[in-house]
Design brief:
InterPro entries: Phage_Baseplate_Hub. This is Phage late control protein. It holds the Pfam family Phage_GPD. By secondary structure, this protein is an alpha+beta fold. Strands 1, 2, 3, 4, 5, 6, 7, 13, 14, 18, 19, 20 and 21 form a 13-stranded mixed beta sheet that branches. A three-stranded mixed beta sheet has the order 9-12-11. It has a three-stranded mixed beta sheet with strand order 16-15-17, with helices on one face. The two termini are about 45 Å apart. About 30% of the residues are buried. The chain is globular. It is about 15% helix and about 50% strand. A hairpin with a 4-residue loop joins strand 6 and strand 7.
C-alpha cells in the first residue's frame, strides 16, 4: 500500500521554484474564505545557510496543491490560483523566512478610497467597472448580473470594502481570486460560469476532531426595508414577512433595491444558526468555500441540517496535508 505523499508546485512570476522551495519548506498554509476578504497564503522556509533570496512585496506566486501518490487519495495537483506577496518576515533562531501572500494585491489600489455614483445600471456592469480599474475581469453569476440598480454610491470607500458591502446587500460570495472578481449567490448550485457545484458528503470516518455549535440568534424572522417613492414624495416599505422582521436602517432609491436588500437580509438570517468544524483525515484540495455539504453519522440533528462550506484551512508540512473545514447551516 503506497503511502500518501503530498505535492506542491510554486512559481514566482512564472518561474518554477521547486528546486529552491522543496528542500526548505517547513510549513505552508492556505486559508480560503467565502466572504469579501482575500484568500491568504503563508509559507515558512528555513534559511539556516543564509542563501535564500527574499521575494519583494508585489511579486506574484502561483500555487497548486495535491497528492503525488497514495492508496486512498487521487493523485494530481489542484490549481489554487495566484497570490501577490504582501509581507516578508525573516527571523531566528533557527533562521527562517515567512512569506505572506494574498489573492488580491492589498498593497495596490484595492485599498484606495473612492467616490463614485452609478445610475440606471446593473449589478454586473458595476462590478465589471470596478474590476476594470485593476486590470482584471469580473465573473458574476447570471442570477445576479442583470439585477437592476437605480442608483448606488461608493462614497469614500475602497473597492475591497465596497465589493464586500455589495456581497452583503445581495447575499453573495464576493471575493477576489486568481486576478478575478467573483460574485455568486451564497449557496448557489452553479459557479459564475454555469458549472455545477457538486455536493460534499462527509462521515465520521473522514476526519478526526469535530465541533458542533448552535449560535445565538435574535428573534427576527424576516426583514423590512424602506425606499423613497419620488412620484408620491414619501417613503414606502417592503417586507419579506414574519412576525418580527429586521428593520433595515438604510433608505433605498427604488422599490427593487429595497426588495433585494430585504430578501438578502432574510436569507442571511436563515443561515448560521448552526456551525460545524471538522479536521479531515485526508485533505481534499478540490474543496472550495460555498460548496454544499451533508454530514452523516452525528445523529438526527446534525445529519438533518443542510450545510455550506464557509471557509477552509489547508496546511502542508512533514510530507502530508491537513485540512480544517468550517461549515454553516443554510437553514434552521
Amino acid at each position: 500500500m503506497p503511502a500518501n505523499i503530498a505535492a506542491v508546485r510554486l512559481t514566482l512570476d512564472g518561474k518554477d521554484l521547486a528546486d529552491k522551495i522543496d528542500p526548505r519548506l517547513l510549513a505552508l498554509t492556505l486559508t480560503e474564505k467565502r466572504g469579501g476578504e482575500a484568500d491568504e497564503l503563508s509559507i515558512t522556509l528555513h534559511n539556516t545557510d543564509g542563501l535564500l533570496a527574499l521575494p519583494a512585496p508585489g511579486k506574484v506566486l502561483s500555487l497548486a496543491l495535491g497528492w503525488a501518490q497514495g492508496d486512498d487519495v487521487t493523485p494530481g495537483l489542484i490549481d489554487k490560483g495566484r497570490f501577490t506577496v504582501d509581507e516578508v518576515e525573516a527571523g531566528g533562531y533557527p533562521d527562517q523566512v515567512t512569506i505572506t501572500a494574498r489573492s488580491a494585491d492589498l498593497s495596490g489600489k484595492y485599498r484606495q478610497r473612492r467616490t463614485k455614483v452609478w445610475k440606471d445600471t446593473t449589478l454586473g456592469a458595476v462590478l465589471a467597472d470596478i474590476a476594470a480599474r485593476h486590470g482584471i475581469t469580473a465573473r458574476v453569476h447570471p442570477d445576479l448580473a442583470g439585477k437592476p440598480i437605480a442608483a448606488i454610491d461608493q462614497h469614500g470607500k475602497s473597492d475591497m470594502a465596497f465589493v464586500r458591502d455589495l456581497g452583503s446587500r445581495y447575499d453573495a460570495v464576493a471575493t477576489w481570486k486568481d486576478r478575478k472578481l467573483i460574485f455568486i449567490p451564497v449557496g448557489s448550485a452553479t459557479t459564475a460560469g454555469g458549472k455545477a457545484i457538486p455536493a460534499l458528503s462527509l462521515t465520521r470516518r473522514d476526519g478526526w476532531a469535530w465541533r458542533f455549535t448552535r449560535a445565538d440568534r435574535d428573534e427576527n424572522d424576516g426583514a423590512e426595508a424602506q425606499w423613497h417613492d419620488q412620484a408620491a414624495g414619501r417613503r414606502k416599505k417592503v417586507s419579506t414577512g414574519g412576525k418580527n422582521p429586521k428593520k433595515l436602517k438604510r433608505v433605498y432609491a427604488s422599490e427593487a433595491d429595497a426588495k433585494q436588500a430585504a430578501h438578502a437580509e432574510a436569507g442571511k438570517r436563515k443561515r448560521g444558526g448552526f456551525k460545524f468544524e471538522y479536521d479531515l483525515a485526508v485533505a481534499d484540495c478540490t474543496i472550495q468555500p460555498n460548496r454544499p455539504a451533508t454530514l452523516s453519522g452525528w445523529g438526527k440533528t446534525v445529519d438533518g441540517i443542510t450545510w455550506l462550506v464557509e471557509s477552509l484551512e489547508t496546511t502542508m508540512g512533514g510530507g502530508g496535508i491537513r485540512q480544517k473545514l468550517a461549515l454553516e447551516s443554510t437553514q434552521i
